[in-house]
Amino acid sequence: MDLERLKARAAEIAEEETGKLLSTIPGSKELYARAAKSLPSGVSSNFQVGDPYPIYLQRGKGSSVWDVDGTEYKDFHGGFGVNIVGHAHPKIVEALTKAAQNAIHFAVTTPDTVALAEAICERFQLEQMRFVNSGTEATMDALRVARAATGRDKIIKMEGSYHGHHDSVLFSVVPEADVLDMRFHTGAEGQAWYTTEPTSKGIPHALWDTVLIVPFNDAGAVEQALSDNEGEVAAVILEPVMMNIGIVEPNPGYLQALRDACEKHGTVLIYDEVKCGGTIAYGGTTERYGVRPHLAAYAKAIGGGSTIGAFGGEARFMEWVGKGAAQQGTFNGNPLSSAAGLAALTQVLTKDAYDHLSKLGQMLAEGCSRAIAETGVPAHTVDLGAKGCVSYRAEKLTNYRDFLETHPELYWASYPWMVNRGIFMTPGDEEQWTISVQHTEEDIRTYVEAFGEFCQALTG
After folding, report:
1. Is the peptide bond before 175 cis (omega within 30 degrees of 0)?
2. Local structure of 359: helix, strand or coil
3. CATH value at residue 107
4. CATH label of the domain that carries residue 54
5. Could you report the per-residue pLDDT of 199-252, keeping only the tens digit for each?
6. Cα 56 to chain center, whole Å?
7. Active site residues
């Protein structure tokens, strides 16, 4: 297939479909004009920025969301993986209503806080854990604990990965690689790891040499980085399933090799399960791949849609929060989030629910794969339970550098096409879909039909 012709056709589709989309969301245009006066770019997070403005949502119910113009969409955005329970789930609404009637806030631990901690420890095989309020806080505190326990400063992270927006991890992060000319940055000759400038302004220079970058799925690179910096590396942090460049699964044996290397060098292995914990399996990464980390960070799906984060693991590391490693927060384990999270994990996200999610996920990925095969679009699908994606590269991805070989022009044509046909998607080719327990087979068929028509329009 002529790739340049395909990209040219994608540009035509993107222009036409974007025009159609903008004509149907005048309410979003109006709200953007208002919001931009008080909010930079008119949004409350850089991830929400739209070109020329985003779609503003007003409400959600079940598997659907409605924008400020009243248009209904089937929600495959899922709040970047938060809404695996769907919208306004009766069990979650009941739990929140009851909690709000008792107390909105204490800044004191409640029975629900303790019960949720127990549920998280049981589900993810943790000895102890602490609550925070976001994925950023969860990885930040996990790294602080690792540094406290080891007395070391350096960390190893995977090339292109995202672990929140605290200073220690804003190095080699999608999508800023092009902006900072880091697309093909590598280490010195014969060296599999490297250091680099941060992908955000405002990061102290003192941190620049504390973060060692290695490719995902390369255990040898981690071993080399640990050996070359013997006794200096506090932690290896990674998304065990890399989820900010589409979806990249760990190669067989990779996670165990990392665990072994960390044990050998006295380094803490940290899983960032903010996206994959609670979505890819009932027990997250440890259940699906069988290798337990020393510490892990969670957020998003574990809160039933509420604002929450958590980190935990082996007690020998978690005990450092009582031995001088600062870990606190006024809203940690608050009554509303604890009630919603407890209802989600014990009443909604049951093992049977994951069977339902697995069935729908397989149906969606197989439907998209058929469309790809029938039309020859250079793409592939990944199915991991509630999470999945289409990546516009024919071969599966193994790391960030593979992601750089994808064709984002095809995604940017698919986005307005799908939204115009009632599918609310994540706004970026590095993101994924999220299916909720309230999605139906009919919802999946709606997605597959729209995607199939897109592939035909792209190649016809």
Report:
1. yes
2. helix
3. 3.40.640.10
4. 3.90.1150.10
5. 899 999 999 999 999 999 999 999 999 999 999 999 999 999 999 899 999 999
6. 21
7. 162, 272, 300
